[in-house]
Design brief:
six-stranded parallel beta sheet, elongated, alpha/beta, single chain, binds nicotinamide-adenine-dinucleotide
Length: about 290
C-alpha cells in the first residue's frame, strides 16, 4: 500500500487536470450507509414486493449495469440513487430494498411510503457531517489547476466540505421537485400533505434525486464525460462501479489515456484495469494520498 500510495502521489503531483468520481462509499464514514451495506445489514425483504416497481438485481431501468463497460462516451444513460439505514426497522418502507423505493413507479404507486423514506433519509443526511475524505478532496481542488468532482451521491456533503466544482449526477436529496413538471420547488416540504402537492399545478411533490429508470441531467452527464476524457489522473472513490452510466466514467478516462486511481476497501469491476488500487477506506486513504 505504501508503495502504491507513493506512486499515486507522484501521478497526482505531475497532473494538471484531475477528475474525481465518488460514490456512496465516501459518505459511509459520515454515517450514511451505502446500498450494499444497507442491504446486507437489513437483509433481503421477506416476500415483500415493491410498491409498483419490479425487483431488479443488477439492472436499472432495464439497462444491464454489471461488468466493465465497453468503450467510452456518455451512454445517454439512465439511473437513480438511494440508501436505507442498516438494521433500521421503523417505517413501512423498511421492508423494501432501496432500489425498489427509488423509482418513479414506486412513487406513483405509493407516494406516502416513498416520501416518508426520503424524509427519514433527509434527516439522516442533515445530521451527518463531511468526513476526512470529503475534506481532503476539497483541499485538493484548491491547489489543482483544473479539477472536477463528479459524484453519484445525493447527500451534498462535498459542497458542505468546501468543494466547488461538483457535478451531481443523481441530483440532491434536499431539493424538492414537482412530479408532473419537474420544476424545483422551494420549501415544499413545509406544505401540508405526505407528500405535499405543488402549489401551482397540484401534482405531488417529489425528492430532487434521479430515480432508477430516469435520465440523468444531460448537462451533468456531458460535463462528467468531458472531465473524464480530458483529465490526466482520474480518481474513482467509494463506488462499486456497476451502476451505469457513472460506471463508464473511469473506463472512459482510461481509454482516453488517463491514469486511474481507485480507492475502495473491496474490489470492483474497475480494479483489474485501474492503474493503481488503494485498498482502504476513503476517510483514511485520502488524507494520506492528498495531505
Ligand atoms: P454502492 O452502494 O453501490 O457501493 C459503495 C461502494 O463503496 C462499495 O464498492 C464499497 O466497497 C465502497 N465503500 C464502502 N465503504 C467505503 C469507505 N469507507 N471508503 C471507500 N469506499 C467504501 O454505491 P455507488 O457505487 O455509489 O452506487 C449506488 C447508488 O446509490 C449511487 O448512485 C449512489 O448515488 C446511491 N447512494 C447514495 C448515497 C449518498 O448520497 N450518500 C448513499 C447510498 C447510495
Amino acid at each position: 500500500m505504501d508503495e502504491n500510495l507513493a506512486k499515486a502521489r507522484a501521478l497526482l503531483a505531475a497532473a494538471s487536470r484531475i477528475a474525481v468520481l465518488t460514490g456512496a462509499g465516501i459518505s459511509a464514514e459520515s454515517g450514511i450507509p451505502t446500498f450494499r451495506d444497507a442491504m446486507s445489514a437489513a437483509g433481503p425483504p421477506q416476500g415483500a414486493r415493491p410498491p409498483g416497481g419490479e425487483r431488479r438485481e443488477a439492472t436499472i431501468g432495464g439497462d444491464h449495469v454489471a461488468g466493465p463497460p465497453q468503450g467510452a462516451g456518455p451512454p445517454g444513460g439512465e439511473r437513480r440513487e438511494a440508501t436505507i439505514g442498516g438494521g433500521h426497522t421503523a417505517g413501512l418502507w423498511a421492508q423494501f430494498r432501496p432500489e425498489d423505493l427509488a423509482t418513479p413507479e414506486a412513487f406513483a404507486a405509493n407516494p406516502k411510503v416513498v416520501w416518508e423514506w426520503y424524509a427519514w433519509r433527509r434527516e439522516r443526511v442533515a445530521k451527518a457531517a463531511p468526513n476526512a475524505g470529503h475534506t481532503a478532496l476539497a483541499n485538493l481542488e484548491r491547489r489543482a489547476a483544473h479539477f472536477a468532482l463528479i459524484t453519484q451521491n445525493v447527500d451534498g456533503l462535498h459542497r458542505r466540505a468546501g468543494s466547488r466544482n461538483v457535478i451531481e449526477l443523481h441530483g440532491n436529496i434536499m431539493i424538492d421537485r414537482c412530479f408532473a413538471e419537474g420544476r424545483v420547488l422551494a420549501a415544499a416540504d413545509e406544505l401540508p400533505g405526505t407528500p405535499p402537492r405543488c402549489a401551482r399545478c397540484g401534482a405531488l411533490v417529489r425528492p430532487g434525486v434521479v430515480w432508477f429508470g430516469e435520465m440523468l441531467p444531460p448537462k451533468a452527464l456531458e460535463d462528467a464525460f468531458a472531465a473524464a476524457q480530458g483529465c490526466d489522473v482520474f480518481l474513482s472513490i467509494g463506488t462499486s462501479t456497476v451502476v451505469e452510466p457513472a460506471a463508464s466514467l473511469p473506463f472512459a478516462a482510461l481509454d482516453a489515456g488517463a491514469s486511474v486511481i481507485e480507492v475502495n476497501p473491496t474490489r470492483t469491476p474497475l480494479s483489474a484495469r485501474a492503474t493503481i488500487v488503494l485498498a482502504g477506506a476513503a476517510g483514511e486513504v485520502l488524507p494520506r494520498l492528498l495531505g
